[in-house]
Write a structure and sequence with these properties.
210 residues, alpha+beta, Nonspecific Lipid-transfer Protein, Chain A, 2 domains, 5-stranded mixed beta sheet, 7 strands
Length: 210
């Protein structure tokens, strides 16, 4: 059941929380930062949210003007959810919240980590300016992304790259572990949880900037 609860506080912080303070709301925003998504894709990315609860949050966010829906390809195609211009203004807030939350205690297992989550983590990793650009084809559980590094800035786009220097196939939780601990890379390559086509040095540049 959608909620209309309010803090009844005219402060801008309270008014913002009236809009995005309900459970799962900001995680829906997080999932839409990189690409529009269908309900089924959001459900997969947020496995601990029930279908009914997710539907409620989507309905509330749409009513508040944070997200909108549109059809793909034709009027009979699937619907996707995407951020509105106003909703897009939450991006630096959500990213800053993620930076702050890295130092919070880890949740108990079993935990989830979506492709969007780990790509945001990858974007936020410190890396020095690199004179040589790098393009990676990244396959996360069958979802393909183009990851480009140029002048120390990493950009992510959904879909196949025109050309790629390396190709990497793994899952979000493995990639998140590698970003946290580079020492895990050798074992991941050996046991097949990471599959690399291309130069290992280029992979090190992508993940660790070195």
């Amino acid at each position: 059941m959608p909620t209309s609860r309010s803090y009844r506080d005219s402060c801008g912080i309270a008014r913002a929380l009236d809009v995005v303070g309900e459970r799962w709301a900001l995680l829906v925003v997080r999932e839409l930062l990189l690409v529009p998504q269908r309900f089924s894709e959001l459900r997969h990315a947020l496995p601990h949210a029930s279908s009914n609860l997710l539907a409620d949050r989507l309905r509330e966010l749409e009513q508040h003007g944070v997200i909108s829906r549109r059809k793909l390809a034709s009027t009979t195609g699937p619907q996707v959810y995407e951020l509105t211009d106003w909703g897009r203004k939450l991006e630096p807030i959500v990213r800053a919240l993620g930076d702050w939350g890295i130092d919070a205690p880890s949740p108990p297992e079993p935990t989830a980590l979506s492709a969007t989550s780990v790509l945001i983590l990858l974007q936020g990793a410190d890396r020095p300016d690199q004179a040589e650009p790098l393009v990676c084809r990244l396959d996360l559980n069958g979802s393909v992304w183009t990851v480009s590094v140029n002048a120390g800035k990493l950009e992510v786009q959904s879909g196949e790259p025109a050309t790629a220097d390396i190709s990497l196939r793994t899952d979000p939780k493995t990639l998140g572990g590698l970003l946290a601990d580079p020492a895990l890379l050798d074992a991941a390559l050996a046991d097949g949880s990471v599959a690399l086509v291309g130069d290992r040095r280029a992979l090190n540049r992508l993940l660790y900037g070195s």
